[in-house]
Amino acid sequence: MARLADYFVLVGYELDKRGSRDGQGQILQRFPEKDWEDNPFPQGIELFCQPSGWQLFTERNPPTFFVAVLTDISSERHYCACFTFWEAVASAQSHSRSGEGEEEESSSHVQPAQLFAPKSLVLVSRLDHTEVFRNSLGLIYTIYVDGLSASLENVIGNLLTCTIPITGGAQPDVEDERARTISLGAGDRQVIQTPINDSLPVSSCSVALLFRQLGITNVLCLFCAALTEHKILFLSSSYQRLTDACRALLALMFPLKYSFTYVPILPAQLLEVLSTPTPFIIGVSSIFHSETQELLDVIIADLDGGTVTIPECIHISLLPEPLLHQTREALSMILDPELEVADLAFPPSTVSASSLKMQDKEIRAVFLRLFAQLLQGYRWCLHIIRIHPEPVIRFHKAAFLGQRGLVEDDFLTKVLEGMAFAGFVTERGAPYRAIDLFDELVAYEVKRMRAEEGSKQKILRHIKELAEQLYKNENPYPAVTMHKVQKPTEGCYLRLHQRPFPRLDEGTVQWIIDQATAKLQTAPPAVKAEKKCMVPSGPPIAAIMERNGSALANSARRLEVVRNCISYVFENKMLEAKKLLPAVLRAMKGRAARHCLTQELNLHVQQNRAVLDHQQFDFIVRMMNCCLQDCTAMDEHGIAAALLPLVTAFCRKLSPGITQFAYSCVQEHVVWTNIQFWEAMFYCDVQNHIRALYLESNGENHVDEEDKEGPQEEKSALEIASEQRRLWPTMSREKQQELIQKEESTVFSQAIHYANRMSYLLLPLDTSKNRLLRSSGLGDVESVSNSFVTNSIAGSVAESYDTESGFEDAESSDVANYVVRFINRFVDKVCTESGVTNEHLKGLHIMIPDIVQMHIETLDAVHRESKRLPPIQKPKLLHPSLLVGEECVMEGLRVYLLPDEREEAAGGNIGGPPLLPAEGAIFLTTYRIIFKGTPMDPLVGEQVVIRSFPIASLTKEKKISTAVQADQFIQEGLQLRSCTFQLLRIAFDEEVASESAEVFRKHLHKLRYPQHVSGTFAFTVGQSPKQAMQPKAKEKNPSLRTLSKNLVKNAKRTIGRQYVTRKRYTPPTWEQRSSQHFQEDDEDEISDKMTMSHLVERACCRDYQRMGLGTLSNSLTRSKNEPFRISTVNRMYAICRSYPGLLIVPQSIQDNTIQRISRCYRQNRFPVVCWRNSRTKAVLLRSGGLHGKGVVGLFKSQNTSTAGPSQTDSTSLEQEKYLQAVINSMPHYADTSGRNTLSGFTSAHMSSAGKWGSIRASGRMSNYVLNMEIGSRLAGKDLLSAQHNGAPSEASFLRQHRASLYIIGDKSQLKGVKPDPLQHWEVVPIEVFDVRQVKASFKKLIKACVPGSPSTDPSLAYLRTLEESEWLSQIHKILQISVLVVELLDTGSSVLVSLEDGWDITTQVVSLVQLLSDPYYRTMEGFRLLVEKEWLSFGHRFSHRGAQTLAGQSSGFAPVFLQFLDCVHQIHLQFPMEFEFTQYYLKFLSYHYVSNRFRTFLLDSDYERIELGLLYEEKGERKSQQVYKSIWDYIDRLNKKTPIFFNYMYAPEDGEVLRPYSNISNLKVWDYYTQEVLSEGPSYDWELVQGQPEQVEEVDRQDSSAPQTKRKIIWPCYDNRSRVEPDAISKLLEELHNLEAELGQVPECWKDTWDKVKASQRTEARQEASRMASSSLLMSSSLLPHRRSLGVYLQESGVGSTLNLSLDSDTSSTSTPSSGKQGGRKSTSNLYSQFQMSESENRSYEGTLYKKGAFMKPWKPRWFVLDKTKHQLRYYDNRNDTECKGVIDLAEVESITPGTPTMGAPKTVEEKAFFDLKTTKRVYNFCAQDVQLAQQWIDRIQSCLSDA
């Protein structure tokens, strides 16, 4: 039973303070005057009676009533019911009089402006019975105002002594009814509706009203805000509504209780409370609206206006998604049932909302359901850590969120962290207590709610059922009719003569109260019959969360994989396990797989220990790490919790007595540093132990009966706890104490255990490293630090922890301190919460430092031992094969090769195996960077992946950090890009220390940019790498002295004395030479002659002689009729450093003139002739661009008068003379008449898109091709004049007027140059790109072809970046200019190409022009000559453009030569039959011109090469055969061995000039840029690639007798296509080679074989042609050249014959010689003979005979072979010759007769040695060396004939 009201108070206006601004209230009377012991009187009631301040009014207001809520210090709520009415204020004089007697008197003189003061009757109660209070106070007022007979004192006394039951039973009985019916003794009667269950809040209609005022969304918003602890402020002008709204919000939050500030009505004086930092729910009268405006973090709900204002800075987390929607729907069904049927054509008439009271309960039912769904299964996450004396319960928040799958949900996370939920756990966690509606709902109805989720009708039915229960709980007694309370008469408050409220007699009231109290004390205590029981837990979360069914089914396969892998590990099947590991690590992304892993590992632990070998240990640790790596610090899914016992169980023996446990390798995870994780783990373990404690004690008692069935084993800890709580009161005192002590010691022992566990996981293996600063991956096992804590220090630390004295010098102190502090913090918290005694706690604090210190010592030993372990788990490092002389600079660093954006290697869109990522090692040699390893995907694990490139070709290196696929740790890596179009994206393995990676980068940089060219691989090859690291100019002579002698010798051998005295660029390493090494007296011997002889041997000289461009003879005997001469003016490189020593200049120009002219040109590169057209005798010249003054001088207008011939004037005249001399050299110059300029043409065509215009316009292609072609067709010119390619022939107009010399110059330099009608030359200004653009373009090209980072749309991105690079437009430009120059030369005009410095684009154009015009340069020999002449001799700056040394590093890489090779490749594609070499040859050069493997392309000019002694050393210095210094030698040697460089389709047309298309649409991206071969790396280092495929073929060939398919799978980007799948000819040549080898013969050179095939092919073609009509020949010859170029015309290419050969080889041996005639088939006997030449068994007899040639030809000795098998006599030039000169078929021989000597026969031979052989066609005359030989020959031939 409880008192209905505790205090009655009368509060009035304090009249003494009337003068002050604010009025104040004062308590006039209160009853009882003494405080109740159990309930002190609340302070400050007077403030709450008039919340908006005490004021006087000028008129009477009607009485008001509201309930304010006060919260006392022990957070008890007091309900203050305030009934306020107004009294007239007596005037000052009448105020002093007192009492009732003077009523008439005072009323006689009424003041007109009377003031009224408020007075309040206040009831203070701890119960919230608003209506009872309203009625009771109303009754008191009625008695007073209507003057009823009842005594006010009695009524008040009765009110204060009235007691009521706190909670009702389910069914009210009669006796109950009396207890619940109260009467205050004024003829009144009220029934008090005591709720059946007081834990459910009472709300009457307030919740429904709140929704009516604010709407669904707003209230939900406030609800979420209140739960997530935001500040909420209600505004209304009605106080009662404020109270109702606050009550409603609290009712919605049930079963959570609001525990922050709760003031439904806040008085004006306390408004500053609103700026409190804590959350609150407060109501304020809306007259203070303006004061609330500046609150920035308060959510304001205006009840009157229906708005909720949320400040910008506040984010309210709303309910998680399906729930939010469901709640909204349910609320709208209740509040607005018409909504459902609003659209119906015939809406039912009966739909209407429930009554307000019922609606209120329905809304609450919705929220009750919501909480049941939010908190379902919460009891499974409770940890009970103490049962006696009081239950201590903790909630495992992370596990709950994890199991519910709501880890990410903001709302629930905040709610679980909130105070309200903490209260909920304390109150409802208890296992044994009374239960209410919510407990039943969350335990029994969850399944039903899940089932009904979709159906609105069922949901509504459930809501109505719950609402019924709630309603019944609030209104258990329907008998409301029995209420009888007097009300005052209407309008009574307006009576004028109202006496003031009387003063009550305290004594009377007190007496009534005392009476009642005494009576209560004698009465027996009313025990509240609590129906306690065990709280039901409901279904476990797992059973509820079945939504993820599909995911589970999907993961069954993965779990299978995990199980298999683990069983393989423990069965020691490591290879199997290794194959599965990646799949397992991928599966670990899934929760199920991680749980599975922990369960499986558990099975392999016996007695808390599992000893593994190193490899097993490694696998297990990797799996654990992967498992933990996706765990957050919260460990929602309990993975870390499940692994915690395992990491201390799995271990390996490092050495006797030293064991390493798994925990030392899995420390790098956040979860271990999260104190909440440790607490949850601790509580979980404690609960298990306490459960075990009680299970054991039960087990002892009931062993015998429980033996058969053991259901008690399944009891959860909570069930045990509730049983124990039930028994607790019945136990004896001693028993209780014993249990309490047992529990306490259980908790204590767990705390010690956890202190140990935490030290295991928090102390790093290498304690010298600071734990907090560690960022490395799992580098513990192979950690690199060497500092350890010595034992002595460790000892001292242990002794002096408290004083901390031993810690100053101990390196481990920071780690140890940190760990000790962390564990102390943890122990403090859990022990105080779980009631561990203080002594125990102190003991723990002393133990912890010792534990930590001991652990540090054991770790120390483990660390030392583990460092000795070889890391085993990684695949063996594969060592790359190196070239002769190439040596490793750095041993392999273990890395992963990551896929870049090229998809092929990673599996990609074309399928194929994922070769990348691969694991292996990166090696740095003196020549290359090499990655060699195996793919990480175990399905392709046996393949080897190699990527490498020469160090010299490295263009960009940047650091990247990236995650390798499997172990998702972020690792540092490098991205290395090379200009050979290779990209290495590597990530260093964890074991590679960052220092090693740094060293690698430094070495790489040093090797990439040596101090001087002599530091490059081509020079240092063969030296030990140590020396290679310090660049020294070493040839082969070891000491410096001999080195310098050697250099001097070279110098003398090559150059005159001027060289030695004038050293301009001296390589830095030469400064060490001291002067003594130069013997002065020797110098005079160095003569010009020696230099000259060497210069003459240079390639360019040979070429000049081939073209007949002058001979090198003395100036005196020089033949005058030659137009050009070879000048030696530059032999000392005095005039132009970058030109060769010998130059072709016009005959008439003197050497001294040349010196002067050269000054007008950049870099002194004056015009020299480099090629002459043999037909038109037009010459091609090259030079650097003109200097400014040179331009002016050359093209100055003739009529300017100059005062005197100035210096510039004379040079310009000489320049003119020079050009004129060139023009004079051309034979047709004399007979051309008229103006020899292009200006006529220019004016006509320049404006339109003519040829010049298009080159000039820097745009892409213009449309002139078309116009020209159509124009020429229409004009009916011969078809040849308009070629079908990018540069139409201008033959037509060039014949009418053309200049004899065109100068192609740079437009920007030739500004303002006017053509002069008197000159014979004309300037063609064109726009060219400069080197900067080439560099930029190349960068973009590399990025397009070898992208480093992924792009959004690969197909588009590639083409787009390719276009943006403008590489192809530059190729187009070069080709276009070249074709133009070819045209001009072909029509007889000479051309001078004078662009930039004359060594980049000039070289490109000049070389291409020669290549297109002269078939010689399209042979291998010719191409070599072209490159040596135009690129090397004429000083293309290879070292500078290739950035080969430190000096060139800043300038970057400019692939000018590569661009030229790309142009050649484009021409090659268009004219495949015109080149003797293959595309591979071009790629080979592209690769090696930057690789620095050969010296050929080093340095910038001949001058520099001579200076280093490179140019002439090759002769006589061939000691080591292996190391080739010149790329040409290497190619020659390789070409002899293999036809790799030879183009089988080579069938040149004599003297054909090629005119390729240059439109961009005709150009192809070179596959050199995009192809790669991962099986062997770039295939341009031939020795490295050899020797691999043999084994493969052996396997293939094992039983080739059986007809079997030799199918191979060829992977793109992995296999070398040309080797795995060679073309037919190469394949046949190879097979032939193998056959010869098998037969034990000396294999023949492939070239000889090929030439034979070609020869026999030709003879057959001739025979056929003569036999058939000659139409076929006509046809083939009339094929247009460009048709031939497409490879249609293959008559001579030999393909046909080879194919025949392969088809007929079986039949040919049996066919007779005459079979050649049948059906026009090729003669098989011939085919047969090709390959049987050298085979001895077919040579029946052989020897030398003189043979007389055909008519009028001399006698010649020939080597004759008589072949019985083939029945023929063959003859050769000499014995060693392999190509047969002719065959005499013995079938055609008619007779052999002795002959007579004829004219020209050998003189010394006797007459009888002559004999004649007569065939059907002719007579052959022979002569042997003597008579016997002649006789032998005759006999042999006769016997052959007779045999036949």
List keywords for this structure.
7-stranded antiparallel sheet; 13% strand; 1844 residues; alpha+beta; 66 helices
The beta-strand count equals 42
Spatial strand arrangement across the major sheet: 25-24-23-22-28-27-26
Low-confidence stretches: 92-112, 169-175, 546-551, 702-713, 771-812, 1025-1088, 1114-1118, 1196-1208, 1230-1296, 1514-1522, 1589-1603, 1669-1737
Largest sheet: 7 strands, antiparallel
Class by SSE composition: alpha+beta
> What proportion strand?
5-15%
| Overall average pLDDT | 75
Oligomer: single chain
Task: Please give the share of residues in helix.
Answer: 40-55%
Distance between the termini: 144 Å
How many helices does DSSP assign? 66
Which radius of gyration do the C-alpha atoms yield? 55 Å
Q: Please tell me what the overall shape is.
A: elongated
